[in-house]
Amino acid sequence: MADLEIHTRLDFAKTLTKKAGEKAMVFFASIGDLVVQQKGAQDLVSNADLEVEVFIRQHIAQSYPNDGIVGEEHANVAGTSGYTWVIDPIDGTANFLTAIPSWCVVLACVHDDQTKLGVVYEPSHHEMFWGAMGAGAFLNDKPMQVSPSTTLSIGSTGIGMNGRTSTDLTVSYIKKLVDRGGIFYRNASGALMLSYVAAGRLIGYAEPHMNAWDCLAGQLLIAEAGGCVEHQSANDMLINGGRVVAAGPGVFDEMVQIANETYLT
């Protein structure tokens, strides 16, 4: 019954995320008309973010009225079913607002302190990264597999940064990565970069702190694509967020070692 429940929710999430992405694309086509507010340094929100999240919330409330909801732009909703949906309506807002087609809609569902499903939809290139616990991870209709790289000197590593932790942490991580022959990649969408790890495009990803809506879906996809993710309580992530290190098994331990040396707060 639980597996059927998760797969029913997964089908719902895929359909809803695609519809939300299509709605966001309408705003993306007329970004000059958007109303933009600054929440913090390099942290922007527009009426597109707000309205797309409302759209997602309304559909969840209609189909799963007893489920909880945690989203980036609006207040949390407590549920009674034990399931909690986690929403980022537009991850990569800075890209979105400057016409860079590198942003995505993110939806995950948590149950029993675990992320049970995740969908990341990148509408500019019609790419949907999706999966469920124990059922694999897919890019559109093809199974994903993480990079087989066994060294940081072969392949690019995604690096995230944020306004909640010191920039020195990120700079220190990058220096140690480069000293090992690695190169770093950043596209200003943590959820999308995590999805690229799951797809084998990046060999790993590291950030000193991420919010749940940015990372839970991508972390699940990486694990289901054969990668490694640091163990975390999903419920704790919903409240506090946390550091994220995820990679293919060949480089994961080294990336964790670097994080332990540099992500000191």
Write structural notes for this entry.
The protein is of the alpha+beta class and about 260 residues long. The strands form three sheets. Strands 3-4-5-6-7-8-9 form a seven-stranded mixed β-sheet, sandwiched between helices. It has a five-stranded mixed β-sheet with strand order 11-10-12-14-13, with helices on both faces. The chain has a two-stranded antiparallel sheet with strand order 1-2. The longest helix is centred in the first third of the chain and has 27 residues, at about 1-30. The chain has two domains: about 1-140, 2-Layer Sandwich (Fructose-1,6-Bisphosphatase, Chain A, domain 1), CATH 3.30.540.10; about 155-260, D-Maltodextrin-Binding Protein, domain 2 (3-Layer(aba) Sandwich). Residues about 40-45 have low confidence and may be disordered. Helices cover about 40% and strands about 25% of the residues. Helix 1 (about 1-30) runs antiparallel to helix 2 (about 45-65) and helix 4 (about 165-180) crosses helix 8 (about 250-260).
Secondary-structure blueprint of this entry?
Elements: H1 2-28, E1 36-40, E2 43-46, H2 47-63, E3 68-71, E4 83-91, H3 93-97, E5 104-111, E6 114-122, E7 127-132, E8 137-139, E9 142-143, E10 156-159, H4 167-179, E11 183-185, H5 190-198, E12 204-210, H6 212-224, E13 228-229, H7 234-240, E14 242-247, H8 252-262
Parallel strand pairs: 3-4, 10-11, 10-12
Antiparallel strand pairs: 1-2, 4-5, 5-6, 6-7, 7-8, 8-9, 12-14, 13-14
